[in-house]
Amino acid sequence: MELLSVNVGRPKALEYTPVPTNTGIDKRPVQGPVRVAAPGAKGVGGSGLAGDTICSLRHHGGDDQAVYAYAREDLDAWERTLDRPLTPGVFGENLTTSGVDVSGAKIGERWRVGPDLLLEVTSARIPCRKFQEHLGEKAWMKRFTQQGAPGAYLRVIEPGEIRAGDTIEVVHRPEHGITVSLYFRAVTTEQELLPRLLDAGEALHPEATERAHTYLAKYAQHTGH
Fold this sequence. Notes:
Elements: E1 2-9, E2 12-14, E3 21-23, E4 27-29, E5 34-36, E6 67-71, H1 72-82, E7 95-98, E8 110-113, E9 117-124, H2 129-135, H3 140-147, E10 152-158, E11 160-162, E12 168-172, H4 180-187, H5 206-223
Parallel strand pairs: 6-7
Antiparallel strand pairs: 1-4, 1-7, 2-3, 5-11, 6-10, 8-9, 8-12, 9-10
């Protein structure tokens, strides 16, 4: 398992209704080492990668979404579907991986990247209008959701420097069955799966924990139990 590319972004203007806005989704590969560390709480901290831009701190970045990884194998599948080349970072991923089942990773799974960096899987990427505008594909959010290969967000457990060519080692894989793909389905098209996410325990993204408890409360109110 290998890190093919480390990608960071600079602000890019997107013009669509309702108002023009900037995004950091346009990631590009960089050479040499990149420092990765916990950026701080969501709303305050941005990306975990030095030199990477997060424009919307309300929705992106922070400790629980410090790093976004996507598999080269899934990019290759999209290349065939879209009939266009997809370069590393084009989906906004910080890490483009090879040999890693990113969407099949379990919440709480830990990856050693290079000699020092230790990451923990927290959640799935949810597509947004900026992603669709960036790619220029019609109905992209719907198509991406249907494909079910969202890639993974990770938090930084131990900081470190990484570079293209570093090895990726799964050093811990929880016994529960809550994968990134299942998480994605639970928060998009199959909300009845939300309570299952709680099996992932403290590793689960706090926002997903809250959604699962809210779902359970509404269910209890509806059924009288």
